[in-house]
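Problem 12. The chain below contains 337 residues. Write out its predicted structure in token notation.
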Amino acid sequence: VMPNRKIILFFAALPILFTAQASKAQTTDTLSLSLTAARQIAIERSAALAANLYRLHAAEADTIGAHLYPNPELSVNAGSFGLLQKPVDNSLATTSYRLDQTIPIAGQMSNHILAARESTEAARRTYDNQVFQTKATVKDSYIDAAYAQINIGLARQNYDLFAKLVEGSKAQLHAGAISEEELTKLELTELTYRQALSDAEQSLMDAMNSLKQTMGFDTSVPIKVQYDFQSSGYLMPKDSLERVALEQRADLSASEHTVKAAEHQSDLSHSNAWPAPSVGIELDRDGPDFQNLLGAGIGISIPIFNRNQDDIYRSESNERAAEYDYEAARIGVRGDF
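Solution.
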């Protein structure tokens, strides 16, 4: 009988063991995140940041292309071969080999390099600003979640204390120490504390979901945050903060490099109004002796109709727009204070 009883007790204890293991697994699966870890996760998992990083690489490719010279052009011509004649008559045959090279002039290549360099730097500053904004968004969501955790603790504590007060008042009612009207007032007040607890729980859920969204997590992933609200940072005066912001804000720096890129692009458009000459050398061989004859030439388009007027107008307009964007960015920095 005793062995059977042990078996029965063992199987009866299995649900308790499984429940304990499940509870332990749920506790283990909760991800405890520091602010630094949350920021790093958001940067690594952000699809928008990844896309903008590749846009930065594309801008860097423009800088590479700006340093490249135009490719030379090789042409080979042959004619007047009497292949259909019998016998074959090559007395009038000619062959020519020509190599032409376009030569950038009037600052065409240097302005292209400067414009591409400033555009790349503007793209880099824009990416840095997006990283900063991502970190700031994560910090705001993290602090909101940490504050909501503290708030829900206080709301639960207040509700528990008032619920105990109501329970004690019910005993006082039976003892005749208070009236039913006074107990009803306490119970109505208890509902207020219960609603405050419910609101705090909803706020915590919203804050956690917002934080998960910034990190690219599914809302079902359980996380826990902890933040020290004791500030130990140095409080700078407003004038110093504004000066530092004007010097170090990545978005303002991106606007400044965009203005410089637009200026160089405008210079490039004026440079491209000058036609780039093409210099070539030629080797001719004429029949019937096919002696080698050397020659050289230069080709240039005559700017009668197209003097790059459209690109000049476009680049000058973009330059003015970039200047106004930069001024708007500076006003925005001052407005932040």
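Discussion. The helical segments are 2-29, 35-45, 47-66, 108-175, 180-215, 238-248, 250-271, 309-335. Students who got a different answer should revisit the alignment rule from Section 12.3.
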